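quick q for whoever's on today - can somebody do inverse folding on this one?? i tried earlier but teh output was garbage lol. C-alpha cells:
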C-alpha cells in the first residue's frame, strides 16, 4: 500500500508538469530575474548568478499557508527532511541532503543562531513564523563563505522590518484543537531617516501525548517485530508555550552610511516525557528555555559604489533548564547554557572593466562559551558541572564575476584558525550559464564542522562521557542542475544532481566494555547522493502549483564493515502545494507532504544491543482558507493533518493528529 501511494504521488507530479505546459496563461513573471539573494555570496547577487541550488520563501507564501512553525514549510523544500520528537515544541531536527542536523548553518538577521548548548543544532522547535519576512536556503557545502556548521548548506532567516508607510499596526488571534491559542501584534514606523519595527506573539497549547497515549510495547504475533499497543484514555498531554519579541531598527546616518540594530528574544516552556527501556513514558518533566539574538551593523560605501564596507557585532545567549523526574521519583534540575559573540568585517571592491568584477575580503571572529550545571553527582575522575570555551578566526577571499555575458563564475577560499583544532582550509567554486529560458548551474566545494562541546566534554553518569581529542569533520561535494522556463516564464522546472562525501564523521555512540557511550571519529567515509526536482507553475492569476521530489541515498559503514542506510533519512520525499484565489477576497491552499520509509534505532537497556527499526511512510495533508472581509479584517481557517495520519518521525514518539484552527487578522 505505501508503494502504491508513492507511485500515485509520482504520477500526480508528472501530470502536474504535463498539464502545466498545456494550460493557457501567457502572463510574464520576472520573479526569477528580480530576486536578489544575500546568502549565496558575501554580497547580494541576482538569482540568475547563483551557482548553488537554492530556494527562497517569501512572507506571502507563509501567509497563504497560515504557517505557525517554520518547519512545516521547510519539509517541502527539495533535499530537506524533518524529524520531530513528539508534539508541538518537541525537539525538531532538519537534515539537508542526508547530512546531520548540526551540519547546516542557520542565520537570523546576520546572527549565527546554531546553539552550542544543543549540540550546535539550531532549535527549530522554538521558531515560529509571526515575524519572519523571508527565508533563503542555499544547499551544498558553504564553509568557504560561512565557516563551520555549513557542510550541508545555509538557512538565512530575515525578519520583518518597517515598510514604506509612516505608521502601520496589525494584530492577530487564533484558537484551535489541543486547547491552542495564539495572538500577537506588530507596529512599524518610518520617519525621515529612522525606521522601526516591533512585533510580539504568544502561543500556548496543551499539545498531545508524546508517549503514545500510555500504551505498552510487545511483539507482533506473526513477524515478531516490536509494536506499540495503545491503551485508550490513558496518558497525559505534553504542552508548550512560546513568547517571542522581535525588534528591528535602522538609521540613515548619511547618504553613504547606515546603521541597524536587531534583537529577538524567545522564551519557551514545554512538557516532555521520560524513557523506560528505550521508549518514552509519561513523566512530569519540563524544560524552560530562552534564546536571545542581537546584532549591531554599520554599512558604508565610498567612491560611489566602488568600495563597500561592513562591520557587524552579534550576540547569542541561550539557556535550557530541564526539570526531570528520575527513577526514584526525585526531581533533578540540570541547566545548559551558551554564549556566542562575533565580530565580522568585510570589504568589497566592485570593479568595472568590460564587465563587473567583485572582490571581497572578510574577517570573522567568534567566541563561544558553554556551561553545564546540574544535580548530577560528579564521578571520581569527571565533574559534569563545568564551563568550556572555544574561539575561531576566519579569513575569507571571494572573487566573483556575476555577469560575464551569458555566464557567471565565483571562487571562494577560507582559512580558519581555531584555538583547539589548528588551521582548516575550505574552498568553493560556482558557475552558471544562461541562454534564453535555459540555465545551467553548478557548484563544487569543501566543508568542515567542529566537534560540539557535548561531544568533547559532555558527561552523563553511566550513559555518556565526552572525548576531548576529537577532530573536525570534513566534507567534499558538488551539484549540477538545469533550470528551464516555459510559456513566457509562467512555468519553472529545475533538476539538480548532488553528491557529498563526509570524512572524519563523529560517531556519538561508541561504547566501552561497561556500556558507557562516547564519541569518536570514524575511519570510513559516509556518502550522500541523489536528485532534486522542483516545479513551479503559475497557471493563471488565480491558480498556482509548486511541487518537488527528492531522492536521497545516504549511507555509512557500520561496525561490521557493511554499507548501511543512515538513520532518519527517507529515500523519497514528495510535496505539492496548490494555491487558488477565485477572487481578490478568497484564498484556498492545499498542501501534501510525503516521506517514504526510513530507518531509526532503538536502544534497549544495556547490555542488550541496539536494533534498527523501520519507520513507515506517511503523508501529511493540510487545507487552509482565508477571506479578506475588508481592508482591515481577514478571517482565517486551517486544518492540519487533514487525513489524521498516525506517523512517527522518531521511533516511539507520538505526533499530533488532526487539528482545526480559526483565526482573525486585523490591520495591514
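ok took a stab at it. sequence:
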Amino acid at each position: 500500500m505505501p508503494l502504491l501511494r508513492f507511485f500515485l504521488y509520482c504520477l500526480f507530479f508528472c501530470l502536474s508538469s504535463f498539464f502545466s505546459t498545456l494550460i493557457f496563461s501567457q502572463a510574464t513573471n520576472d520573479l526569477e530575474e528580480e530576486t536578489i539573494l544575500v546568502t549565496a555570496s558575501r554580497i547580494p547577487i541576482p538569482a540568475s548568478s547563483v551557482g548553488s541550488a537554492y530556494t527562497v520563501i517569501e512572507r506571502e507564501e507563509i501567509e497563504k499557508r497560515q504557517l505557525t512553525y517554520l518547519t512545516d514549510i521547510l519539509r517541502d523544500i527539495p533535499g530537506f527532511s524533518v524529524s520531530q520528537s513528539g508534539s508541538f515544541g518537541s525537539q525538531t531536527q532538519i537534515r539537508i541532503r542526508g547530512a546531520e542536523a548540526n551540519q547546516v548553518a542557520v542565520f537570523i538577521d546576520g546572527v549565527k543562531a546554531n546553539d552550542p548548548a544543543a549540540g550546535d543544532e539550531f532549535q527549530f522547535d522554538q521558531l515560529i513564523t509571526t515575524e519572519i519576512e523571508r527565508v533563503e536556503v542555499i544547499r551544498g557545502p558553504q564553509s568557504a563563505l560561512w565557516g563551520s556548521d555549513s557542510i550541508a548548506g545555509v538557512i538565512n532567516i530575515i525578519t520583518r522590518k518597517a515598510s514604506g508607510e509612516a505608521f502601520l499596526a496589525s494584530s492577530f488571534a487564533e484558537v484551535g484543537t489541543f486547547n491552542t491559542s495564539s495572538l500577537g501584534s506588530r507596529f512599524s514606523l518610518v520617519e525621515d531617516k529612522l525606521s522601526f519595527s516591533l512585533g510580539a506573539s504568544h502561543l500556548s497549547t496543551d499539545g498531545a501525548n508524546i508517549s503514545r497515549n500510555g500504551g505498552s510495547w510487545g511483539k507482533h504475533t506473526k513477524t515478531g517485530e516490536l509494536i506499540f499497543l495503545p491503551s485508550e484514555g490513558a496518558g497525559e498531554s505534553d504542552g508548550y508555550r512560546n513568547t517571542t519579541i522581535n525588534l528591528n531598527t535602522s538609521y540613515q546616518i548619511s547618504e553613504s552610511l547606515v546603521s541597524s540594530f536587531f534583537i529577538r528574544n524567545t522564551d519557551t516552556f514545554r512538557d516532555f516525557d521520560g524513557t523506560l527501556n528505550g521508549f518514552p513514558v509519561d513523566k512530569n518533566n519540563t524544560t524552560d528555555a530562552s534564546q536571545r539574538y542581537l546584532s549591531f551593523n554599520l554599512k558604508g560605501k565610498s567612491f560611489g559604489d566602488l568600495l563597500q564596507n561592513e562591520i557587524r557585532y552579534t550576540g547569542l545567549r541561550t539557556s535550557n533548564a530541564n526539570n526531570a523526574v528520575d527513577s526514584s521519583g526525585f526531581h533533578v534540575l540540570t541547566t545548559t547554557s551558551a554564549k556566542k559573540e562575533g565580530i565580522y568585517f568585510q570589504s568589497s571592491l566592485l570593479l568595472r572593466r568590460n564587465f563587473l568584477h567583485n572582490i571581497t575580503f572578510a574577517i570573522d571572529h567568534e567566541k563561544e562559551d558553554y556551561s553545564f550545571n546540574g544535580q548530577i553527582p560528579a564521578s571520581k575522575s569527571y565533574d559534569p558541572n563545568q564551563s568550556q570555551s572555544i574561539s575561531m578566526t576566519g579569513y575569507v577571499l571571494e572573487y566573483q564575476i556575476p555577469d560575464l555575458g551569458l555566464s557567471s563564475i565565483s571562487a571562494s577560499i577560507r582559512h580558519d584558525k581555531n584555538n583547539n583544532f589548528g588551521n582548516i582550509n575550505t574552498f568553493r567554486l560556482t558557475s552558471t550559464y544562461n541562454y534564453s529560458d535555459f540555465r545551467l548551474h553548478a557548484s563544487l566545494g569543501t566543508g568542515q564542522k567542529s566537534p560540539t562541546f557535548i561531544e568533547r566534554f559532555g558527561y552523563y553518569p553511566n550513559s555518556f562521557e565526552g572525548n576531548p581529542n576529537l577532530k573536525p569533520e570534513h566534507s567534499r561535494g558538488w551539484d549540477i542542475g538545469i533550470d528551464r522556463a516555459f510559456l513566457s516564464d509562467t512555468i519553472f522546472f529545475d533538476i539538480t544532481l548532488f553528491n557529498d562525501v563526509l570524512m572524519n564523521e563523529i560517531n556519538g555512540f561508541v561504547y566501552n566494555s561497561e556500556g558507557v557511550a562516547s564519541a569518536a571519529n570514524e575511519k570510513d567515509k559516509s556518502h550522500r547522493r541523489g536528485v532534486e526536482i522542483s516545479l513551479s507553475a503559475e497557471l493563471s492569476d488565480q491558480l498556482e502549483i509548486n511541487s518537488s521530489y527528492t531522492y536521497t541515498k545516504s549511507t555509512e559503514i557500520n561496525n561490521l564493515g557493511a554499507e548501511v542506510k543512515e538513520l532518519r533519512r527517507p529515500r523519497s520525499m514528495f510535496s505539492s502545494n496548490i494555491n487558488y484565489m477565485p477572487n481578490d477576497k478568497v484564498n484556498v491552499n492545499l498542501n501534501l507532504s510525503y516521506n517514504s520509509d526510513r530507518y531509526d534505532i532503538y536502544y534497549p537497556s544495556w547490555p542488550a544491543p541496539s536494533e534498527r527499526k523501520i519507520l513507515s511512510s506517511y503523508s501529511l495533508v493540510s487545507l487552509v482558507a482565508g477571506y479578506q472581509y475588508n481592508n482591515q479584517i481577514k478571517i482565517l481557517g486551517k486544518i492540519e493533518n487533514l487525513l489524521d495520519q498516525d506517523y512517527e518521525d522518531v521511533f516511539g514518539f507520538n505526533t499530533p493528529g488532526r487539528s482545526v484552527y480559526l483565526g482573525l487578522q486585523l490591520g495591514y
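fwiw Helices lie at 2-20, 31-34, 59-65, 71-74, 143-146, 453-457. also The first helix runs from residue 2 to 20. so keep that in mind when u check it
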